[in-house]
Amino acid sequence: MEAAGDDSALDSAMQVLLELRAQAKADKNYALSDAIRDKLAASGFQIKDGKDGSSWSRS
């Protein structure tokens, strides 16, 4: 069960993860970038990469 405010906390946490993934890609650390994406996918989140950055949704 989600408490009030959990969506805001989830949004913030996902932004941090997407920023870390973007930095890993910028550093050409593709193994880390892929690992972040794959672990999020295994947890039920879909990451979409676009020309303006990445976005996420629940699978």
Report on the structure:
- The chain has 59 residues and is of the alpha+beta class.
- The chain has one domain.
- It has two helices and two strands; from the N terminus they run H-H-E-E.
- A two-stranded antiparallel ribbon has the order 1-2.
- Helix 1 runs antiparallel to helix 2.
- The longest helix is centred in the first third of the chain and has 21 residues.
- The mean pLDDT is 91.
Relevant terms:
alpha+beta; two-stranded antiparallel sheet; 2 strands; single chain; 59 residues; globular
Summarize the model shown.
With 59 residues, this protein is of the alpha+beta class. It has helices spanning 6-26, 30-42, and strands at 45-50, 53-58.
Percentage beta strand: 15-25%
Order of helices and strands: HHEE
Beta-strand segment tally: 2
In whole angstroms, the N-to-C terminal distance is 18 Å
Portion in helices = 55-70%
CA-atom Rg in angstroms: 12 Å
Write the layout of secondary structure elements.
Layout: H1 6-26, H2 30-42, E1 45-50, E2 53-58
Antiparallel strand pairs: 1-2
Helix pairs in contact: 1-2
